[in-house]
Amino acid sequence: MDTWMRFMSSDGSIVFGRVEGAYLHEYEGLAQPVPTGAVLSLRALTPLAPCAPGKIVALWNNYHGLAAKLGKPVPTHPLFLLKPAASVIGTGEPIRRPGSYAGKIVYEGELGIVIGQRCRDVDVQQAEQAIFGYTLVNDVTAADLLTENPHFPQWCRAKGFDTFCCIGPAIVSGFEWRDAHLVTMLDGVERQNYPLADMVFSPAEQVSLISQDLTLEPGDVIACGTSVGVGSIREGATVSITIDGIGTLTNTLIAGTPDGAPAAAQERSGATANAV
Q: What is the residue range of the signal peptide feature (predicted)?
C-alpha cells in the first residue's frame, strides 16, 4: 500500500506526493502520478485535504445494516447527490456552522473512493483500474433543512455548505477495503463501528454504475454512504473517523463567522486553480 497526501509549502504552493516516514516524495499530481524527484520534509509542510475534487458524489442507503434499520428497500442503482468542491476541508480543520442555520448538524463517517482516471460508461473491471485509492469522508449534514420544504427535499443544500465535506487524512492505494471496519468517535465515545463489506454496491460497482450517469474525473471523490450510528454534533464537539490502514480524520464543529471564512476554507482545501 502507498500513502498519498497534499500539503501547502511555505511559499504557498501546493504539493502532492507519496509519504514515506517523515518525507514527501513529490509527484506531478494525482491525474499524472509521475515523480518530480523532489523530496520534502513534512515538518516544513502544512497538510491539506489529500485531493481537490471537482465534485463529491455522496451515496445514500448503501449499507444493508442501515437499510434494515430504516426499513428501506435495498436500491438497484446507487442513490446519490453531489456536494460542491467548496465544501471540502482536510483533517484538523474546523467544521463551521452556517450563520443562517441554528438546527441540528449531523456527522456521517464514510469510506471515500478517489478517482484516478476519467470514467464514462466503464464496466466493473475498468472501474477497478480507475480507482486511485481510498480515503475517509465525514459527510456533514444540516439535518433540519432536508425536510424544511415539504415539496422539495433539500439534499444538496443540507449537505453542501462550506466545510461540510471533511476528507482525509490521506489517500491509500492498494487498500483492501473488504476486511476493514469504520469507527466513528464523538468526543472519545464510539458512535459507529461497521464493516465496509456490508456495502450494497462495492467500490468498483459504484464507479461503474455512476459513470453511466455522469463523467467522473481524476480527483473526484465518491463517498460510499454510511451505516448505523449517525448522530448530531454540538459546537465544540470533535468527530474522529478511523479506518485502520488509512488513518484518522478529525474535525471539530465551531460557530460560523460572517467574515469570509468560506473563502479561507476554500483556500485551505486547495479547491483553486493551482490544485493538484
A: none
